[in-house]
Design goal:
- The protein is 44% helix and 26% strand.
- The protein is of the alpha+beta class.
- The chain has one domain (2-200): Roll (Bifunctional nuclease domain).
- A 7-stranded mixed beta sheet has the order 3-2-1-7-4-5-6.
- A hairpin with a 2-residue loop joins β5 (84-93) and β6.
- α1 (37-47) runs parallel beside α3 (104-114) and α2 (57-67) packs across α3.
Length: 205
Amino acid sequence: MVEMRVFGLTIDPQTKTPIVILKETDGEVVLPIWVGAMEAMAVSLVLNNERLPRPLTHDLLLMSLNALKAELLNVEITELKDGVYYALLVLRGPEGRVRVDCRPSDAIALALRAGASILVNPDVLRRSAEAQEKAGQRLREEAPPVQAADAATDMMRKVSARKEVDLLNGLLSRDGVLPAENNPDEEERYRDLLRSLDPISRRKM
């Protein structure tokens, strides 16, 4: 399993769906997971060190585990099937270790609160990367044909596009978030990068 951490939260400008960005703890592998609004809020509260006067659902679950003398050891994102991610909570209680099925978005929110590790199956990372590559290939195939006379112009356009994607990757690696969507120029570059991500997995968390 590959240990990853929450690198940041961002928004898909096309669907306005929140995305949790996971990044390899000791590497550069990035895994984007589209989540629901409530789960994104639960993650955001921890990332921003916000404390509420009353416990929310994820806080309540951890409090219940503590009351039962159990603890969350880690969470595992185990599978990617038909665009849906699957996860497990690894708990330790009086009877030993148990694994509980859950959504990755809930697993991540719980892991942040408990200070537990987030582990990802290498096969999930491979499948996600393959899906992103296929999505990028579809975009390239759907692009209109280029006239021979415009070959030089097209080459320059591709070089410029590559630089834009590299810039976005640099911003994500440095800041943990991509450009804010209220900047029209940066939003367009952001949108192009998101189009290369796996579209099937969106809104299925």
